[in-house]
Amino acid sequence: MNYVVVGNSAAAIGTVEGIRSADKNGRITLISDEPYHTYSRRLISYYLSEKLPVSKTYYRPKDYYQRLDIVPRLGERVSALKLEDKLVVLESGETIPYDRLMLATGGKPIMPNIPGCDLKGVHTFIKWDDVLGLEKTLAPGKRIAVIGAGLTGLKAAEALIKCGVDVTVVELAGQVLNTVLDEPAAYLVQKKLEDHGIKFCLRNVVTGIIGRKGKVLGVSIQVGTTLKCGQVILALGVSPNIDLVKDTQIQVNRGILVDEHMATSVADVYAAGNVAEGYDTIYRQRRVFPILANAYKQGFNAGLNMSGNVRSYCGSFAMNSIGFFDLPMITAGILKPEGEGFVELVDSLSPENYRKVVLREGRIVGYTALNKVDGAGSISELMEKEIDVSNFQEQLFKENFDPVNFLQEVKRETL
């Protein structure tokens, strides 16, 4: 069997490991437009702030491709797919045949439609090259504007401030992490970042990036003022990188549509990770959710199916575990419920702590924890098993709450 995997991150690695768990002899060719060993993109901010050496960002050991008998084609870009002939076309013109094809092309940064994005000093912040380009230009006292106060923008701001840079974050919404946190939780995160020197310009739109002789001088914002800076980070989120499948028979919505086997609408072509619309068990629909663990699980299941071992992917839900300075944060599922049928339980232990559980039909469908994150794993298990917590929901925030014993009791009652 001849397998071709396009991509080199979590979904791609999950795919090759799924294949190898069932097929030890098939040929696996892995193609990536980046020339680097597989690495965790969520760790690039820690590299920039000198927390991690390069080797610690690797997603797998250095000899990984050799040990799994993978043919890596790193630093080579796929320019087209010839699905009728089962060929992958490289930018060089070379064609690579396949029996089974995995598309794990991930996401690409959303670019705003404003003047000045092509100026020198404008960066995105999702790949190694983004960080390496920034690293060469950083110096204490320099001014950088980060456009976007989502997870990527705030991790970039955190890394930059640790490098001694003057950082201002510009955001359209009235709070940070607008799609992730409610206002009380967002306030705690913003305050933590402000305490470390990061400035915020909320409820503002960047209307243009100002430059002279090709270099950035500042950004103009909707209120009619100019924010002076020498560099700009664009962190407006990511969208599924579906460029390869445009104008092909592969069906797409926001991402590539896949079935429970991670197969696309074209025979022998699969997709997984940030480019695919996987099933979200909480939202009860297919969605794109760029979470590393989910990408790996999708890829592994796809790899099994590609090798002939039928395995259904039952779905998962979005979960983030991240921190800003010494403030840990865990979120999962529906975080800002809209409409009827939801109950929100909030536990403010102290001004520095915040926990919230979202219930629907007596079952946990969302969870937020800031600072005090003990027990998050247990809450996630209750979510995953869809346990009705109505009879003990008032105990969820108690220090001595033990869901393990409760789950055992549920099993006994069921039996």
UniProtKB/TrEMBL annotation:
The gene is padH. It comes from the Bacteria. Pfam families: Pyr_redox_2. It is an enzyme of class 1 (oxidoreductase). The keyword Oxidoreductase applies. Its cofactor is FAD. Gene3D superfamilies: 3.30.390.30, FAD/NAD(P)-binding domain (3.50.50.60). This is NADH-dependent phenylglyoxylate dehydrogenase subunit epsilon. Residues 2-298 form the FAD/NAD(P)-binding domain.
